[in-house]
Write a structure and sequence with these properties.
- It is a single chain.
- This protein folds into two domains: 70 residues, DNA polymerase, domain 1; 292 residues, TIM Barrel (Alpha-Beta Barrel), CATH 3.20.20.
- It contains twelve helices and twelve strands.
- A ten-stranded mixed beta sheet has the order 1-2-3-4-7-8-9-10-11-12, with helices on one face. It has a two-stranded antiparallel ribbon with strand order 5-6.
- Helix 5 packs parallel to helix 6 and helix 10 packs parallel to helix 11.
- The N and C termini lie far apart (45 Å).
Length: 373
């Protein structure tokens, strides 16, 4: 029988998620299992069900003793996220879900199927404190950091949905992009913990290749340098959005602390250490950052700073309701791409997904909050 729950598993304070298997390293998992009166090998059994079987359903865990099984599973694998709304578009190939955490916090994830891959856009924070004015999440401010368990649970749920035929035939979740709600490197410890668990083979984790993971940042330079020292093979994406400090100070307020040249120097150190190209994210905003001379400058600045170790990912802006920001016309977008490429820098336009279901990060959560007020 499972013992009464020790302090670590008692009801969490508001804002503090319950402790979950995915918050613990292998040694801590064994200690937690032991504290619940179970032999330590149960930790690996649970992990194999959760990471390998993609389930927290106690009824499917027949290798656990039936007496006290449900209580044991509930203690080690508490429900972290419950669906509020799910929406699909692009002939069902894009699925956005709004989740509610234990304390009512709202977060979003987007699952996207392509011919050669299935990608999850995952959130690392509830809200965001970076205050970029064109971003729905940034407009709402930061609620709190997500736990490693809450990040991993988004991935586990998405992998299970793909496996269970969300896109028709069973598919394998292959790519993770930390480009949902929040600034990943502002929640550094938990994001790195989640990345390691995503990449660890079962029973330690989900076994997804590090080279299939992208971690984005608006340019938190000390965290970029720290990530460089981790020696991981994840791709670094820098949300630049302007090639000149004068404009970027307005679009990305953290630029007032770390200027473009400093951030790109940090990105170069990361590229040199890992051998991986850095992705430069650039939301193209009508009559704000889409001028031809800015395309020329962007190409030159990136070529000088990163050489061939860079790729520009041009993002047609997904405007938020009531916003003064709008997407650039396609003719302007095409000219921008041409001029960046003319500087010897690879530049492509991101496939636009989910504009009719509020798929820009933060939009669905914002609309849900409006409904509750």
């Amino acid at each position: 029988m499972t013992k009464s729950l020790p302090l670590i598993f008692t009801a969490p304070r508001r804002g503090k998620p319950p402790v979950h298997l995915a918050d613990l390293d292998p040694a801590a998992r064994k200690e937690a299992v032991k504290a619940l009166g179970q032999p330590t090998f149960r930790a690996d059994q649970l992990a194999r069900h959760y990471f390998g079987g993609l389930t927290r359903d106690a009824e499917l865990m027949s290798d656990l003793p039936s007496a006290g099984r449900q209580e044991f599973v509930d203690a080690m694998l508490p429900e972290l996220l419950s669906p509020v709304r799910s929406m699909a578009t692009d002939s069902g190939d894009t699925r956005k879900t709004l989740w509610r955490a234990h304390d009512g916090t709202l977060i979003e994830s987007v699952l996207m199927a392509y011919q050669d891959r299935v990608t999850l856009c995952v959130s690392s924070q509830a809200g965001c404190g970076m205050a970029c004015p064109f971003c729905a999440t940034g407009q709402g401010g930061l609620d709190r950091n997500l736990s490693a368990g809450e990040i991993i649970e988004q991935v586990r749920l998405a992998a299970a949905a793909a496996k269970d035929g969300a896109f028709g035939e069973p598919r394998r979740l292959s790519n993770i992009v930390f480009m949902g709600m929040g600034e990943p490197l502002a929640n550094y410890k938990r994001v790195l913990q989640a990345v390691r668990m995503i990449t660890d083979p079962n029973p330690g984790g989900l076994g997804i290749s590090a080279r299939s993971i992208t971690v984005s940042t608006v340019g938190l330079l000390p965290a970029i340098d720290k990530l460089t020292e981790e020696g991981l093979q994840v791709r670094l994406a820098v949300s630049l959005h302007a090639p000149d400090d004068e404009l970027r100070d307005t679009l990305v307020p953290v630029n007032e602390r770390w200027k473009i040249a400093e951030v790109l120097a940090g990105a170069r150190r990361y590229a040199d250490r890992t051998g991986r190209r850095v992705s430069i994210e650039y939301a193209l905003i009508k009559e704000i950052n889409d001028q031809g001379w800015r395309a020329d400058l962007l190409g030159k600045v990136l070529k000088d700073a990163l050489g061939h170790l860079v790729h520009v990912n041009l993002i047609p802006l997904n405007p938020t309701p009531g916003s003064k920001w709008d997407a650039s016309p396609k003719v302007v977008q095409d000219e921008f791409v041409r001029r960046v490429q003319a500087q010897g820098v690879t530049c492509t336009v991101r496939d636009t997904r989910g504009q009719d279901i509020d798929a820009a990060c933060g939009q669905l959560a914002a609309s849900e909050k409006d409904k509750q007020q």
